[in-house]
Structure formats: structure tokens, C-alpha cells
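WARN retry 2 of 3 for item q-0093 after timeout on previous attempt; input resubmitted unchanged.
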Amino acid sequence: MPPLGCGRGDAGVGPWQSVWMLIEHRGAVPQIDPSAYIAPTAVVCGAVRIGADARILFGAVLTAEDGEILVGDRTVVMENALIRGRAGHSAIIGDDVLVGPHAHLNGTRVSDGCFLATGAALFPGSVVGAGAEVRIHGVVQVNTVVPPGQTVPIGWVAVGDPARIFPPGQHELIWAIQETLDFPGTVYGVARGAPATERMRQQAAWYGSHLDDRQLPDNPREPADEA
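OK item q-0093 returned
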């Protein structure tokens, strides 16, 4: 993949389209294909690679914490979506994927051609097979595998490997499977029942690594010194 680019491609679009927030995190900088478009209010942080003709729209946040984010060719990440990469659970988004507004993709693997609608939530260790759909406010729980072509209906919850899909009102059936998937261990690295102080001390330290972040000096948000 080409090194960090300005997102202008070959279309000769205006220079305002290169005004994004690019951040070095843990020594890693984003790599963006020159044909990709990054909206002015998007944030791309750390070890993020964005493929050819991808589109990252207004307010989207792609933050590679201690993992990676890979966004495939022609994938569109819509307004205010969040994609987070984690150690052991990089966020891998394939080609030709639609990530809807306000979607939350955290340490997940999404195969080519998937449709993730508004407010979809995919948690660490989850896998969504090629051509699958997660519809409005659908949830794919930790360590859950949605087979290729499967649909998670509006507001429903996919849980388990292979996924079983339940309406949100069936909490007891969801929990019977979800409890075995170890959400606290997968997401926070703590045992179930650990006190909030232990969990949040770890989280504060984890996110505290952003104290050493560096906004890239060639980011047009930082005006150059006049000679």
C-alpha cells in the first residue's frame, strides 16, 4: 500500500478535502491510498491502512489502539462510525463493505461485501462472513461468528460460534451463550466480577497512551510557518 497520501486521487478535487486529523500513536502513522477520500472532520489514529477508493465520511473515528485497522478497497465508513483496533483483535474490514452511520466495530473481522447498517455493534473477536448483513442496531457479541450470507435482523443479537440469533427480549437465552464467551476477559482482560477499580485503572492506563500521541506535522489542520 502506498505511504501516507492526501486523499485527492486523480480527480483534481479541491484542497479542502485534505483537511483531516491524522495522528501518530505508539509510533505508528496511518497509511492511506492516494485514491481514498477522508472527510475533513474524520480522525485516523495510529496503525491504520485505508485501501483504494475507500471513503471515510464526516465524524468517523478510526483508532488503532494497540492493534491495527485495515480498511479494504471501495469500503465506505459513514458518518460518526467508530472502528477500533486492539492487541490480539485487529479490526479487519474487507473490500466493498458498507459501515453505516454510528456503527461500532471493535476488534472485529468483516469479510468482503458485508452490509453493516446504522448503529450496528460488533465486538472483539467477532467474525462476519462474506456478504452477511447486520441490520439497524444489530449486535454481534464477542467471539461470535456470523456465517457468510447470514442476516442479523433489526435490533437482534448474534451470539456464539456459529452464531445463534435472538430478538433482544430473549435475554436469558442470549446470556446462556454469552456468559461462556468471556466478554470481560476478551474486552478488558479481567475476570468476571473484578471490581470496577481494577477494570478502570487498566482502561485509564490503556487510553493514557494517547498522552504521547503526535498530530502529524503535514496535516493541513496545522498551518505551515510562513517564511
